[in-house]
Amino acid sequence: MTAVTIVFWIFAAWAVASALLCITRTNAVASALWLVSTMFALAGIYVLLNAEFIAAIQVLVYAGAVMVLFLFVIMLLNLRGSGAASAES
Question: What is the pTM of this model?
Answer without folding.
Answer: 0.79
